[in-house]
Batch of 3 targets.
Target 1
Amino acid sequence: MSLLEIKNLRKSFDNTGVIKDISFEVNQSEVIAIIGPSGSGKSTLLRCATTLEKPTSGEISYLGKNLFSTDENGKVHIANKAELKEIRSYFGLVFQNFNLFPHFSVLRNITEAPVISGLLSKQEANNVAMDLLKKMGLEDKGDAYPCQLSGGQQQRVSIARALALNPKILFFDEPTSALDPELTGEILKVIKSLAAEKMTMVIVTHEMSFARDVADRIIFMDGGVIVEEGTPDEVINNPKNERTKAFLSRFEN
C-alpha cells in the first residue's frame, strides 16, 4: 500500500486552475523531488497534501485513509475530526521561511507541538529535542532564540521541529530558497542524511544537482500538470519532453 496517494487533484483560485488533474503515489522510504518553474503549482500541491489548502476536487489519502475525497456531486469532503487528527500525525512540513515562533526558545519551538498534542510528556519531548538538535549540529543552541541564529541554523531547527512529531512522511517546500548560497549546503546535507536513513520525503526544490543526487523519482510540473516523471537519470539527464528540456537548459553550466 502506498503511504500517500493523490488522485485527479485539482485546485483553483478565483476560477483559475493552479493544479489540473494531478495523480501520483509515494511509497514508503521513497524520496520524490518536485521541480518546475515558479507558478507551476508545486507549493499549492504540498499545501493541499498537508491540509493548508482544500482541493477543488480529487482525492488525497494516507495509508488508505481518505484525507480529502470528492462525492458524485463534486463536493469535496475532509476526514472527520478523529481521522483528521490521526492523518495529520502522519506528515510534517518544512516551510521556505522557517516559521519558527520568535518568542520561544529553540528547545520550546521543538517541544511545543509534541507536548500540546499529548504525544510526549515534557521530559520526553525535551529528550527527543536534544537528540534532534545534536543530530542537526545544534546541541548548544537549545536556549537560544530564532533571532540569534543564522538562516541555516533556523532551518535546521524547523527540520528538527517537524521530526519531533515522528512523521511517516516529510514535505519540504523549497527549504533552501530563503538562504544565502553558502548556507544552502548545510541544509542539503541534513536532507541527504535523512534520505540515507530511509525517511520518506517529498521535496519541492530548485536545486537540480541535489534533486538528481537524492531523489528516487523526479516529477517535473508546469502549468499545474505533471509534464514528465521518472528516475533522475530519465528526467534530468535524458528528458523526453521539450518543455522539460527547455526548463533544465537554464541549469546547465
Target 2
Amino acid sequence: MENAIGLVMTGGGARGAYQAGVLKRIGELKRVRTHGNPFPIIGGASAGAINGAALATGCDDFAEATERLAEAWATLKPSDIFRCGPLSQAHNSITWIMDLSFGAILGGGNARSLLDASPLRHFLSKHLDCDRIQENIKHGNLYALAISATNYNSGKSYLFIQGKKGHPLWKRIRLVTIATKITVDHICASSAIPMVFQPVRLETPRGSAFFGDGCVRLQQPLSPVIRLGAEKVFAIGVRCGNKESQEQATDERNPSVAQIMGVIFNVMFLDHLATDIEHLDHLNQLLNDGHINQLGIEGHERIRALGTLVMSPSVNLSDLAQQHQRDMPTLIHYFVSSLGRNASSCADLMSYLLFTSRYTRDLIEIGYRDASERIEEIEEFLYSSREGDADDELASEAAETRKAGSGGKRKGSGGGR
C-alpha cells in the first residue's frame, strides 16, 4: 500500500458539523467520484469518531456518504443527543445536589454527568450500520478505522482499530491499541464529553471498563494514522486559524464555571491537533535539512517526511455559538447559562453543546465554503502523488476495454509503510 492518505478528525462536540461541510465539498470532486474513497486510513476521536465511522460505513460510495453525513448534521436536534425534558433535568439536578450536600453521609458518586446522553446511541444506531465497515475493508474501499477513547478506570488512552488483517498494533506508555470490531458503543464512548455526557461501559480483552471522550488523553492525534501507514495526512480541525489564536483582552474578574469548562474543552479538542501539526512540521524540516536521518533514534524506528494539509474554520465558532445560544431548549439554555455570568462567558462551552440545526447548518456552510476556497489545493494534495499511477491505470484500463469490450469501475488505492 503506497501513497496512502490518512484522514484525521478530532473532537469538538457540535463543532463536528464543520468537518461534515468540508467532507461534503471533497465528495463533490469529479476524481473522488471516479476513484472512490481518497482516505484509506481514517482516525477519529469524539465528534471526529462519529464522522470517521460514517465515512467508514459508507466509503464504497464516498460522495453519497458525505452527503448523508452533512444531512444528518443539518437536521440535528438537541433531543437526538441528550434528554431535554424537565423530568430528566430535575433528576440530574437532584442527584448532583444530593451528592454535593449529603454524599459524605448517604454515600455519593451517583451523579454521572450534567446531561443524559442516552438518545445519542439510538441516533447513531439509526444512521450507522457498523457491519459495513468490515465489508468495505474486505472489498478494498478502506484499510483501517481507528477510534480513540479514554479508559476512566485505568486513566489510559485506548485506540480501537478495525482494519485489514495484519494491520500494525503498538504499545506506548498510557496507550493501549486493540484490534476489534468497532460498534456504536465504541463511538458513543469516544464522543462522551467529560462531565457533560455519562461514561460508556465497554468490554475489552483486558476486561470491562468505563470509557469517555477520546480527546482527553490523545495528545498526538496524528499518530494513529501515521503508524497505520499513512504517507500523507489530511486533518480537519475545529479551531479558527485566525481569531481564536489571537490573544484576547484580559477579563480581571474571577472566571465562571462556564469559562473554565470552555478553556478545558479548548485544550482537549483544539490544542492537541495544533501542537501535533507543529511537531510534525518541525520533524519534516529537520529531515529535509539533513539534521536527522530516516533511521530514526538508534535505528529502532524508521522516520519519514510526511505531507500534511490542515483545514480549519475561517470564522470564530465561539462567536457564532453566541449568536445561536437562544436556539437551545429553554431548560438546557437556562441550565448552561447558570454556569456563566453572561452569554459571552458561556460562548466557548456552548459552541460544543449547540446540537441545533440552525447552528450546525451554519457550520456545514462554513466548512463547505472553506473547502471550496481551497479545493484546487485539496485536489492536488489528494492526487498529485498518484498522477503517474493513474495514467498507467487509465492506459491499462483502456487496453482491457479494447480487448474485452467492457470496463470496470476504478477504485482508489491505498498504501502503508
Target 3
Amino acid sequence: MAQFQYTAQTAEGKKIKGTMNAADEAQVQQLLREKNSFLLTAKEVQATRSVRQFKPKILSEFCRQLSTLTAAGVTLVRALTIIAAGEAVRPKEREVYEDIVRQIRQGIALSDAMEQQGGAFPPLMIYMFRSAESSGNLDKVSMQMAILYEKDHKLNTKISSSMTYPKILAVMIVGVILILTQFVLPQFEEMFETMDEMPALTKWLMGMTDFMGSYWYVVVGAVVLIWVGVRALMTIPQVRLFWHWVQVHIFVFGKLQRTICTYRFARTLSSLYAAGIPIVTALQIAKKTIGNDYIEAQFDTVIPFVRAGNTLSEGLDQVDGFVRKLTDAIRVGEETGSLDAMLMSTSETLEYDADIAINKMVSYVEPAMLIIMGIVVALVMAAVFGAIYGSYDSIAGM
C-alpha cells in the first residue's frame, strides 16, 4: 500500500484535506465516496525518511510489551502510547512509535502504519501483524514474534561473544610482536652490529623493527586503507556474492554458516506458513532473512519454479547452501499433510544444531590463535638466540 495526500469535498460543499493508505488513486476515491465525499486531487506521498531496521532486541521488547498490554484489554492506541513513553526507548524509536499512533488515530491499520516507517520494521513482522489483524489474535502473534526475535538476538549475541576470545588473542599477538620488535630486539642491536654476518631471520626482524620505528604511520595508514578498501569491495554485488559463496563452502566454518542460514530461513517460513501466508509470498519474505546473498540470489529461480506448481521440497533441492535436513523434513511434511508442524520442528532442531556448531567453531579458533602466537614468539626468540650464539662463536674465534 501507498500513502496518498488528498483534497476532497463533502456533500455539504466543504473542502477537506488528509492522508490515506490505499493501493492506488481509484481506491482513495472509492473510500472517500463511502464517506459521502468526492475526491478532488490525490498525490502519493513519497517516503521522506529512511530508518534503519530495528535490531532484534528492540523488536522483541516491542512485541512482548504489545502482547502483554493488548492481552490485558488495553486499547491499541493506549498500548502504543505506553510503549513510546518507556524510559529505555530511544528518541528515534519514540518518533516511530508516535507516528504509528498518529496514523492509527486516523483509521490506518497497525500493519500499514508500520509499513510506512521507512524500513524500521521487517517485512516478516508486518505480514504477521496483518494476518493477526484479520484473525483477531494480535496478542498471541505479538508474543510469537517476541519469542522469535528474542531467539534471533540470542543467536547474534552468541556468535559475537564466541569471537571475543579470538579477538583478544589477536590483540595479544600484535602486542607481543610490538614488544619484542620495539623493546627486546633493540637491546641486542649493539651486539649484533659487531657480528660479521647476522642470521637471515635476525636481519629480517631487525629491518622490520627499524621500519616500524621510523615509518609507523605508514603501517597504520596501510591498515586503515586495507580496512576501508575491504568495506568498499563488499558494496560491489559480485564481490559480496563471491564472499558469501566462500562463507558457505569454506572448510569447517562453512558448515556453521549453512546451519545458521538454514535455521533462519526455516524459522521465518514456518511462522509465515502457520499464519496462512501463501507459500510464494512466504518464500519472498523468508529469503530476506537468510543473511547470505549467494543463497538469496538462488531464490530468483526457486520462486518461479514453485509458482509453476512444483513442490516446495523440489524447489529447495536446487538451493546450494542449505543443509539437507531441511528439504528432507519438508518432503515428509508435504507427503503427510503436516508441512507447518515439520517446518516448526525442523527450525527448532536447526537452532540446536547452530548452537552446537558455534561452540565447535570456538573450539577450533582458540587453539589455532594460540598456535599462531606460539609460532610468532618462537620465530622472534630463534632470531635473538641465533644471533647471540653467533656472536659468541665470533668472540671465541677471535
